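Record 1 of the preview.
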Amino acid sequence: MTNIIQKALTTSGYYDIEPTVSNLIECYLDYADAYGGDIDDIREDIQNGDITVNQMCNALIRCN
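->
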């Protein structure tokens, strides 16, 4: 799991960040905010499991 998180973070320009789930979430929220996403709704979806770690990683890798 660490490898895909590292790839997502690096691809997104977060080079010196430890590949943890919490750092991935912050990166994902930064990108969602930049694209006009509702951060509160997205954060809730992450907490509820509606958005998974793999989905966040894949989205970040694809959009960069």
